[in-house]
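Q: Got a minute? One more chain.
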Amino acid sequence: MSEISEMYTKLHAMLHNIVPDVELRYKAELAVEINRLKKEKNAVILGHNYMEPALYHSIPDFVGDSLELSRRAATTSADIIIFCGVKFMAETAKILNPSKTVLLPALKAGCSLAESITAADVRALKAQYPGAPVVTYVNTYAEVKAESDICCTSGNAVAVVKSLPDETIIFLPDEYLAGNVARETGKRIIFPSAAATPGPTMVGWRGRCEVHEKFTVKDIQTIRQQFPQVVILAHPECSPEVTAAADFSGSTSAMIRYIEQTQAPQYLLLTECSMGDNIIAAHPDKEMLRLCMVRCPHMNLITLEETLASLRENRYVIDVPEEIRQRAARAVQRMLEN
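A: Always. Here it is, folded:
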């Protein structure tokens, strides 16, 4: 059996109920060529949990959430890191492993959350709340990380905040993640222009993920009416009202582990649609309901076609100015220690 036939057989077994057969045959060819090239060029491919199924289940050497992939990027010995994710993730790989060539398959694969804040915004907040440590979500660009004391992911945000003894903490830029972390750590959340008051306080920012802000409590109520036994899992970038109404809230990897380790009549994920497809493919015994109102338009730009072109043409190279990289690296390394 040829490599293409083997790849097609593998993908068909996992994705025949998700991806049309004619598309699987075409994508099997792309995947085989990508895997050949990555060996030839000594490249490693990191795939975020939000990648479309045919890519996710064929070419990554490692899959996971931002935290897991950051750790993989930091320790790889490959010459080239292909990051099948979005720009801030590829920047983080370069921050942690500057001697490697880091490639992002789609130049415009950005992030609404990362775009919501600049380094100048962070400096202004530090001037308004002098002495308050800055905790920055990893979903930010390098220049913002460079102004921060420590980074976090949705998976370790609570642990990071709890590790800081300061009463007032600046937490950027996700408004909803900040609200969820404040609730779990017993802090009162305020936003810029409000004066810090005595007691545990978290200064937030009005940034949101354009995918996760779409989910509402009404969505949950409607689904529960039709499927009373459904277990609903919400990403912490959803609003605090949504995470409170869900049965579980956690990072993408935490949600995957939860589903793997539990049994329920149905599961519903309140996060990017492709992740549900990837779980269905890996766990056909689990029944996943669908509430796909929106795909992440940035993650959706990363395809097998773009990844193949990235390897062939050495595009698009992600660079971070060394002065910014060094300062950002301190904040990211502290994140990895939590």
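A: Residues 38 and 44 are 7 Å apart (CA to CA).
Q: Perfect, thanks.
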